[in-house]
Specification:
Elements lengths: L2 H27 L6 H21 L16 E9 L4 E9 L3 E9 L9 E7 L2 E2 L1 E4 L3 E12 L2 E9 L8 E3 L2 E4 L5 E2 L2 E2 L2 E2 L17 E10 L3 E4 L3 E7 L2 E11 L4 E4 L3 E6 L5 E6 L5 H18 L7 E7 L6 E4 L2 E5 L8 H10 L3 E2 L2 E3 L5 H20 L1 H16 L30 H23 L1 H15 L2 E3 L1 H11 L4 H9 L2 H8 L5
Parallel strand pairs: 1-14, 20-21, 21-23, 24-25, 25-26
Antiparallel strand pairs: 1-2, 2-8, 3-7, 3-11, 4-5, 4-8, 6-7, 9-10, 10-18, 12-13, 14-17, 15-18, 16-17, 19-20, 22-23
Helix pairs in contact: 2-8, 3-4, 3-5, 4-5, 5-6, 5-7, 6-7, 7-8, 7-10, 8-9
This protein binds zinc ion.
The site of zinc ion has 5 residues, from helix 5.
Amino acid sequence: MSDRKHKRKLFLVSGSMTVFLTTLVLLLVLRPTQGWLTLLEDKWKVLQPRFFLDTLAHTQTEGNPERETKTLTYMIDAELDTQNHELKGHVAVTLPSGNYRDIPFYLYPSPDQPMRIVSVEWNQRPAHYRVDPNQLQVKLPVSYKGSPTLDIRFVTPIPRAGTRFGEFNGIWSLDYWYPIVAVQRDGKWIQKPVPKGFGDPFLMDLANYTVRLRYPKGFTWFASGPAVQEISYGSQMVTEWKIDSVRNFTLIGSPTFLKKQWKTADGVDISVASQTDNHLDQLVDVTKHAIDTYTKRYGAFAYPVLSVVQMPEGTVFAHEYPNLALFSRAIWSWGTGERWIAHEIAHAWWFSSVGTYKALDPWLDEGLADYSARLYLEDRYGKERYRAEIKQDWTLFVEQRGYSPRDLGRSIGPITKQTTQPYMSFSEEDSYYYLEYLRPVLMYHDLRMHMGDDKFFAFLKQFYLKNRLHTVSRADLEHALADVAPDEVQRLNLWLDSPNQELIAKVQGDFQ
Ligand SMILES: [Zn+2]
């Protein structure tokens, strides 16, 4: 070997060593707190649905091309005053970019104990506003193009009652407790839907939240996002929660909760809670099976936390909030209780992950959550159980009988309307449950029978993975179906739009 060659070889060896050692030092110095493997795993989780969609998707979702860019943020600082049963708070709301002059907010607490607005500021100056028990109407002094931030101080009285928002038996159920920016459709603000004593009269947009709450020590909280900080101040605690892209921020707290917690294979922190030991193990069991079923059928859950909370009798019936499923302890005596719990957990996929304007299209998330509950029963107890459920559903449907847990099986016909109706057009609970829950369950079953399992579940997976962390409308569901089985869109439309008697006559043959 010549001297020159030898020198070059030495140079290459020492050069490679230097590169190797520098890389090693950089890997050690720059090591993220969670470690490289966890970081790469997290990145893969984010990217994986995209790889998957590339092979599955045939067209892009066309629901709302601007939806990626719209960001609404709420920064809330509040104090829970347990002595006076009040929440005293300050919220800084930053709206997505747009043209603004009048900005309405929905106030959801009961008009009997309405939220009080203390002040509204824009650019550190008092803004003009009008308030009634249902809405806060802010008027900017000039038309503003951009992304305005409004600072609102409010006091929300907390009813001492087992109502959806209230304190009962030591459980503080804090939902829709701050001013919520109204929803626009076709450039116009929608008036707050009037509650009718049933169903969900709620409308709101996805938003990023930072919430800080001061409260007396000793509380356990279940929230729409993970806690990122806890600070103790004498007899008080302050907890800060942070979560992006949720439809609202709900807190359920009590000093008396018993809880069980675990982490799923996907890294989601699951909590199950109740004030008593009764049914707690059973609830853990139902929750685990439901999460497994929905993850397998649709895809991974989109958020880092999910809580399932059993409430005392005399509070909620059963209700979903972002990353929170609630139900009354009385549910175990309904006969259909396990199915309704599975329904509430399914809302974490349909309503939370894939968002809906519930009051405008109740059937969209209710139908999917309720059909999911049948899939839970099928996966857990077998195909025979699924078939028996569908048979029972068909009987209720064709005989036009009540489907709400309160009126199950009671004759309620004739039902003449169709499924596609907003909450606002219903006057009673019976036809709401019949058209918005029961009829869509049979719709999905009928589609499955026509498409076969492979295509049917590809359609639901497609719809889920393409729309996670977005708000969907009927068009998005149609697109997902058209991607997988374009000929079946007609069948979907038949189920959604046909007057009830006409639909029964047309589909009867499929269910004989
Ligand atoms: Zn529901």
